[in-house]
Amino acid sequence: MQRISFGLSTLALLVAGALPAASDTLAAEIWEEWQAQATLSGQTVTATATPTDTGLVLTNFTTTFEEEDVMVQGIMDRIEMVENADGTLSVAFSDLYSMVISFEVGVNDPRANIELLMEHENLDVTVSGDAGARSYVYTADRILVTDGRIWGGDGPPPTIDLEMEMTGLASTYDITGTGAEGDVMRFSSTGSAEQFSMVLDVLPPPGEEGRLKAGMTATGIEGTSAGTILSLATLNQFEGQVPPGLELSGTTSYGGVAFEMAFEDPSENFAVAYSNDGGRIGFDFSETSLSYDIAATGMRTRISAADLPVPIDVSVGSSELQFSVPLAADDAPQDVTARIAYQDMTMSDAIWGMFDPGGAIPRDPASVILDATGQVLVLVDLLGLDPETMAAPPGELRALTVNEMRVAVGGAELTGTADMTFAPNQPMPMPVGSADLQLSGGNALLDALIAGGLVPAEQGAFVRGAANAFARPGATPDTLESTIEFGADGSITANGLPLQ
Question: How far apart are CA 167 and CA 161, in angstroms?
C-alpha cells in the first residue's frame, strides 16, 4: 500500500509540505522529481506537460502501478503549477481525481474493477526549497472520497455506497535526498484534521441475502511521521526481509472516536458499537528494533448478536499497550520494555447476572496493570528467522524487573514488584532475585464467593489456609504480604518458608 499510495501523494503530495523557503523552485524541476519518485516506488507517471508564462500545466495526469494480479490507476484532468515571486511554487488541482483498482477474480473471468472518486474544496499546495531538500505545505477545507463504478468479475457486483470525508486539513511534508546512489531519501511530516468520517453500506449481488453497514467518526486528529524512502529495487532485493537502512516512525493523537457496524441476514445478525474520549497511537520500526504505544480513555463497547444470551456491554476508564523489543542480534544484552494497563473496567448488570445473579461479588471497577523492563541477549536477527529451521531459542532472558503489578477485582487488590536476573546458557531460565506481593481484601472477596455459592466452602477453606501459611499479616485489616526469594541454587522461599 505504501507504493500504491503514490498516486494520491503526487496528486497534492496529500499529506504534504513545509513552510516555504526563499529559494527558486521551478515547475519543470518538480515535475521531473515527481516522475523520478514514481519510478523509485515502482510506478509510472505520465502527463502532457505544457510550459506557460508562469510555470507548467499538466493535463491527463495518470499514475499506474502494477504488482502481480493487481493494477491501480489514477487519473486527473489538470494540474497547474505557478512559480511565485518569492521562489515558491503553487500547485492547483482539478476538482476530481479518479482511482481504479483492477484485479483478477478467476482464470477465465474478466478483471474486476473498483473505482474511487476524490474531490476537494479549497485545496492549496505550496512547494519550496531546492533539489534534494523539498518542502510542501498542504491545506484544504474538505477532502471527500466516494464510490464510483464497479464492473467486471465473475458475476453481478455488490452494491457499495461509500463516503469518506476529512475536514479542516493542514499538513507539512519534507523530502531530503535525491535517491541517487549513496544519497538516501528521507521524509518527515506533520498534519492535522478537524474531523474524519466514514459511512459504508454494502448490499450483496441480486439473489444473495445480507447487508453490512458501518460508520465512523474521529475528531481532533494530529500526527507526525518520519522515515526513509527506499526504491522498489531495494525492496525487491530484500523480499521477505527488512532492507538495511529502513526506518519508519509515527504518532497520531485524536480527541475521540465513534464506530458502529451491523450485519443483517435472515439467519444471523450482529451489531458492534465502540467509542472513546480520545487516545494515541505510536510506532517506531527499523531493522534493529520495534516499539508500539497505543492508549485510549473513556472506552465503551457494546456487542449484540442473535446467538448471544445478553448484549456484551463493557466500559474501560483507560487502556495502555506499550512495548519495545530489539530485533537484531548483538553480543551484549539489550533492553526490552512492556506495559499493559486496563483500568476501571465495568460490565453491565446483565452480564454480571449470568454468573452472579445474587450480587455476592462487589461490583467495583476492575483494573489490571503490568509494567516491566528487562534485558535479553538476541542471538539471531529475528526478522530473518525461519521457525522451521530453528534448532535453539533465538535469545536468552538475562534480567526482569516488574516495576508495577496490580490486579483489582471484586473489592480485592493484589500488587507487587520484582527484580530478577538469569544466568547465561540455561535451557529453562531460572531466576535469581525476589518478588514482593501484597493482597488486600482477599478474605472479604473469598467470603463473598462462598456466600454466593460460586466457590465451595471446603475449597475456600483450603485457599485461606494456604494463603495464611505462606503470607504474613499486613499493617491493616484483611491484608497479607509475602516476599518470594529465588536462590542461585534453585531454591524458592516465601517469607523464609521453602516452597521448593
Answer: 20
Which amino acid, residue 255? G
257 contacts 302 by C-beta, under 8 angstroms = no
In the DSSP assignment, the letter for residue 17 is B
Contact 356, 323 (CB under 8 A): no
- Nearest Cα to Cα of residue 474 among 418, 433, 416: 416
Candidates 276, 41, 12, 34; CA nearest to 143 is: 12
- Helix runs in 218-327, H state only: 232-237
Distance CA 74, CA 65 (A): 9
User: Going along 211-357, which residue ranges are E strands?
Assistant: 211-229, 247-254, 256-264, 269-276, 278-286, 289-305, 312-326, 334-347
How much is the pLDDT for 386?
Answer: 75
Amino acid at 205: P
**Taking a C-beta distance cutoff of 8 angstroms, is the pair 203, 229 a contact?**
no
Residues 6+ apart with CB under 8 A from 117: 96, 97, 98, 99, 145, 146, 147, 148
The answer to whether the beta carbons of residues 243 and 235 sit under 8 Å apart is yes
CB atoms within 10 A of CB 284: 17
pLDDT at 193 over 80: yes
Q: What is the pTM of this model?
A: 0.87
Q: Which of 98, 101, 50, 56 is nearest to 77 (CA)?
A: 98
Taking the mean position of all CA atoms in its chain, how far away is CA 317?
20
Which residues does residue 260 pair with via DSSP β-bridges, in sequence order?
A: 215, 273
The three cell numbers locating residue 213: 453497514
Q: What is the pLDDT of residues 32-85, one digit of tens each?
A: 999 988 888 889 999 999 999 999 999 999 999 998 889 999 999 999 999 999
Could you tell me the three cell numbers for 144? 471527500
35 alpha-carbon distance from chain centroid: 31
**Coil, helix or strand at residue 36:** helix
Instruction: Retrieve residue 95's grid coordinates.
Output: 476538482
Q: Of 113, 138, 109, whose CA–CA distance to 14 is shortest?
A: 138
pLDDT tens digit sequence for 437-493: 999 999 999 999 998 888 999 998 999 888 888 899 999 999 999 999 999 998 999
DSSP at 234: H
3-class secondary structure, 33: helix
